[in-house]
Amino acid sequence: MPSSCRIRALWILTNQDTVLFSRRFPVVEKRWRAACERDESCLKEYNVLPSLPTDSEIAAAFIDRKKREGSARGFGIRINQSVEGSDSWVDDPITRHIISLCTKTEEDEKNRILWPLVLHIKGHYCILVLPLVEPDHLKTYTRMCTRSDCGNAVGADESLSPLLLNLPSITGAFMVGHMIGDIITGDVTEPEIVVSASPSVGGLLDSLTGSIGISARAKPVAAPVVGSTASGAATSGAMASDAPKLGLRPLDRDAIRSFISSAMPFGTPLDLNYTNISAVKINGFASADIPPADQKQPAWKPYLYRGKQRLLFTIHETVHAAMYDRDEIPDSIKISGQVNCRAELEGLPDVMFPLIGLDTARVELLSFHLCAQVPEHGNEKQALVFSPPLGNFVLMRYEGFSGMGPPIKGFYQLSMVSENEGAFLFKLRLMEGYRAPLSMDFCTVTMPFPRRRVLSFDGTPSIGTVSVAEHLVEWKIITTGRGVSGKSVEATFPGTVKFAPWQPQRSPSSRAILGNMEDEESDAETESTNNMANVEDLLTEKMNKDLHPVDLEEPFCWQAYDYAKVSFKIMGGSLSGMSIDPKTVSIFPAVKAPVEFSTQVTSGDYILWNTLGKCPVAAAPKA
């Protein structure tokens, strides 16, 4: 948990903008008021809110912001409708996640600003977390909201990103918001640990079975299910709101109260591990859980493990890619990964092993669990020492590049032959250059059409099966149970797709955002239409002029862009080169505990952009 993180208050709102739950921390609020009293200009010149607003004031301010900014997240950039003093006036996309609210006090009828509010949206709920910051930080932000220029200029005296980097409380508030969101939606899960269903023999036998496509099936290790007890008692440093809370079940409210009182008493986050807190409440402590006098028990291991000992590691990587198949636009592929661990070890042992693949050529960003002791980054084999907590946990997260090339190469083309019919072509190559024991467990390609209703399609792929839904066509190239290992696969799929007649849709919000842009460009559109000689361009122009503007909430559903999304899973190794040798893992004090290691690679946003259509691209910085 970041140091110097304290939370003043938090609110949970529904999508109807009703406050269902709120919690204020008077101990932290007292610090804020004392800071404002020392800085009188904060209240007089900058209209900073001296105290916390009521739940009804928060709801009203949140509704006003949604009307002003267009949505709960907001625009994030300055547009024609941006108002001076609003978040979008700052012209920084981070204002879609760290927002401000303006409320009017009954005393002076002035607009007072409440900032920084970390906004986390989970399911049908909006979680607002208000961390404690210095008045100087808030004054800097209010100046940004009124400046005439926009954007974060290089070398500028005041910009939002450096300001937030100096606030560790922002990171802590994000962690609190995400954990609260997981609790109220029931998504409190532990990292997945995968072990082989049958032990590896190794050597020549593994090489032979891998080369002919036979690989051991993997199964996940389920984390122990830990319930929570209802506890409605609030600590003296925290007060619960009495506002109407329709929509949350009583058990949910009790779970949130119990978690807050245990994880962040008096507004200071200590341990946000929901599993640890729930386990302590259910199991309590026994005399056997008391460690030896010469050992200090860490906060992340509240009680000791008893039972059969073993140590499990899983490297889970997610591949994000944008494949363009264009000479002027390079393909982009990034890998985000994490090392999951489960240490069923008695006592308070230390574990050490060299982590292979940490050279800076492939791994860019690294972060470790607070139980780890990490030397300086840069060596190929880097020794990692940690005192493991209970249950499944993420030992390390990283981002890097693939040293093996993209697992799926090729192109996707879609061309409209008439207003309601399109011809498409896929030509893909799977696992090119990949050798055993790497195997592809499944691979599926989806063509989404969010604004068009699919009536039928015609075409036969060279491999796999095809299914059609109302707004998509799905091509299953490799199905689970028929994985491919040690060889590459070529897959082609030509065909046509027919849509229901186009019905132009135009929402009021679209017209509000675009303003008078359509009227100003109407003459140009007419002239260009009259001069068109290409039938396909004419059809595209006719359809796209009725499309909605870019929806920032769904960046991959832009109406003027065509794309296909690939989903897959690869077993048997990592793409970044990250690895762990079970034979090099050491446990102190020494115990006989088997060590198992597995890897799993899954697709994230793996996008094939239509080579015949429009596509978004960001200019890469020059080295």
TrEMBL record:
Its membrane topology: Peripheral membrane protein
A Pfam family: Adap_comp_sub
Cell division recorded as keyword: no
Subcellular location: Endomembrane system
Keyword line: Membrane, Protein transport, Transport
MHD domain mapped to chain residues: 308-571
GO cellular component, one term: AP-type membrane coat adaptor complex
One record GO biological process: protein transport
Superkingdom to which the source organism belongs: Eukaryota
Family recorded in the similarity comment: Belongs to the adaptor complexes medium subunit family.
PANTHER family xref list: AP-5 COMPLEX SUBUNIT MU-1
This protein's name: MHD domain-containing protein
Provenance organism: Anisodus acutangulus
